[in-house]
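Something for you to look into today, if you have time. Could you write out one complete protein record for me, on any chain you like? Leave the record below and I will have a look.
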Amino acid sequence: MYIPKEIFRTMPGETRSLESADYILITMYTVAFIGGTIGVIAMSFFLVKMNTLSMTTAAIVNLVVVHGLLLLTLPFRLYYYISQKWIFGLEFCKAVSAMMHIHMYLTFLFYIITLVNRWLIFFHLKDKMEFYRKLHAVAASAAVWVLVIVIVLPLFILRYGKEFDKSYDNRTCFKFHRELEKKSVKALNYVMIIAVVCITCILLGLQVFIILKVVKNLSGSVWSHQEFWAQMKSLIFIFVIIICLLPYHLFRIYFLEHTNEAQLENYNEICLSISALSCLDLLSFVISGSHFFKQKIIMLRDKYACC
């Protein structure tokens, strides 16, 4: 009997040897897990000292939470790619798969909130962006998570992979590409791709404009001014989007029209794994905010200026 390659990686009970794509995925998720865990722990200590009424702080707290939830699922992905078999059931497979996409778009959302808050203050449209009470900050965060946990996640688990359930090998996971053949799913993907790409271009353009404006207004070396470093921190958010989130969406454009090509599934998974590297953002924020890091940057600048 012929068994389609896109349904089974191997015959039930068998495991195949690791391929190049598997090694790349294992490396990506290992780096994301280790670096992300360190970043979440380090940022948690910083948050204790930050203004709890600030909208930026609330966004960062939620960013820590969403990174933490993704990090909890990464060991299961690593086990699967190392052992080449899934032993945790179809529904949990869907939940782990859903978490990757939920993490990607919530990270994007919290980045936008953080950047908009900073820009409103920079352009003096608001003196400060704060909640009136801590309860308001908690309520706003809870509203986002209720929407995700009560509505988005259950719908994702119930509908995602439904076409695949009848022919699903319970030792295989993350093979839901057949869903993309649906016109409604394909249309939704195109909408998300266009939205992410357009918003990213707008964010980058505005941030570059602000940095140039700051450099023009500052006297002396810009490297010694706190305002310049604050804008560079904002630029890190956009760099993370470009490096970690855009590759998946740009490759998705091609993948949506070639879902039947088995090899492209590996490339799609690799691009998705790159999005998990956004968990390293918290570590980069901690490092970039350290006095030691700023001193080293200034020393390097002075060294090359002398040359």
Notes: The radius of gyration is 22 Å. The domain at 20-286 is CATH 1.20.1070.10 (Rhopdopsin 7-helix transmembrane proteins). Confidence is low (pLDDT under 50) at residues 1-13.
